[in-house]
Every structure is written in structure tokens, then in C-alpha cells.
Specification:
Strand content: under 5%
Shape: globular
Order of helices and strands: HHHHHH
Distance between the termini: 54 Å
Number of helices: 6
Number of strands: 0
Structural class: mainly alpha
Largest sheet: none
């Protein structure tokens, strides 16, 4: 995106803060349950933020827009990631049999880091063919859009219930006795 090393490194801080905030929000919204309803919204937030970063002008010194918006969008992308991953990891930790839990979590970690490796290789190849950072973000929008689409249709009942419960909690104070 035309940032120097210091500003590029600072973007990782915004991503980490976004992931942490998304994880906290997912934990608060779940209220001691596994809330799959946050997953489609998290995936959609990741997709939207990645797409907007992909269509932004590349150099921050030509415009104030990317210099201000890039950290916000990276933070929002991280927030979507936290909203998506917390219910998934919680489900795996609670539902996998104790004797298979380590294998399941190791597989999940392996798949996550494989995705990071594939993304890094893709960005490296794009850099080598001088495609520019916008092309990288646009290409990364494709898997996140597929993830959002699949998670919405696979979890539409959870998402709808979560949406309705959130609205009800805003209007009424619900007490379970």
C-alpha cells in the first residue's frame, strides 16, 4: 500500500487489536454458550474490509483517505476474524473427545498456518509480477467471500436467532429464572 517499514509494522498492531476486540465481543455476546451466530457476520466483516482495502488508492501520501482508513479497515478485518474464530475454537475445545482434542486442535492450527503460508506465497508471487498490493487484497477477498457465503448458508438459523436475540436484548431486559 506504499507504506514504509514502520507504518507497515504498525498495521500488525491494528490487526492484533482487532482480533482481540472481536474475540472479546464474541465472548460477551455468547454469554457462556457457543454462539455460532457471530460467525457469518465476522466473515462478512472480513470480506468487506478486505475488499475496501483492495479498492483503496495505493500510496498514502497522495491522499489522506488510505492513511486514515487503512488502520481502521485492518482493525475491522481483525474484529471480523475474532468474531469468526472464537465460536469455532470454543466448539472444538468443548465437543472433541478428550483423547482426540489435541489432534483436533493441532489440525486446526495446521490448517490456519497453511492458509497463512498460502497467503504469503500468493502475495510474494504478486509482488514478483509487480501486480501491486491492491491485487493481493482483491485476491484475498475471494476466499473470505466464499467463507462468508458458506458460513451464512450453513449457519443461517444460528445467525437469524442471534440477530433477533440481540435486538430483543437491546429493547428488553431478559432474566432467566
Amino acid at each position: 500500500m506504499g507504506l514504509d517499514e514502520k507504518l507497515s509494522t504498525l498495521m500488525f498492531v491494528f490487526a492484533a487489536l482487532g482480533i482481540a476486540s472481536g474475540a472479546i465481543v464474541a465472548g460477551r455476546l455468547s454469554q457462556r454458550n457457543i454462539e455460532f451466530g457471530t460467525m457469518p457476520g465476522g466473515a462478512a466483516l472480513m470480506t468487506a474490509a478486505t475488499y475496501i482495502i483492495g479498492i483503496m488508492p495505493a500510496h498514502p501520501y497522495n491522499s489522506v483517505w488510505p492513511f486514515i482508513m487503512l488502520p481502521i479497515l485492518i482493525f475491522l478485518c481483525g474484529t471480523g476474524c475474532g468474531l469468526f474464530i472464537v465460536p469455532l475454537d470454543t466448539f472444538m475445545q468443548l465437543r472433541l473427545p478428550a483423547e482426540k482434542r489435541g489432534e483436533g486442535l493441532a489440525l486446526s492450527s495446521f490448517m490456519s498456518w497453511s492458509g497463512v503460508l498460502i497467503a504469503g506465497c500468493t502475495l510474494y508471487l504478486l509482488h514478483k509480477i509487480k501486480a501491486g498490493p491492491a491485487a493481493g487484497f482483491m485476491i484475498m477477498t475471494i476466499p473470505t467471500a466464499i467463507l462468508a457465503f458458506v458460513s451464512f448458508f450453513a449457519l443461517k438459523d444460528f445467525a437469524f436467532r442471534f440477530f433477533v436475540n440481540s435486538i430483543v436484548r437491546l429493547i428488553y431486559k431478559v432474566r432467566v429464572i
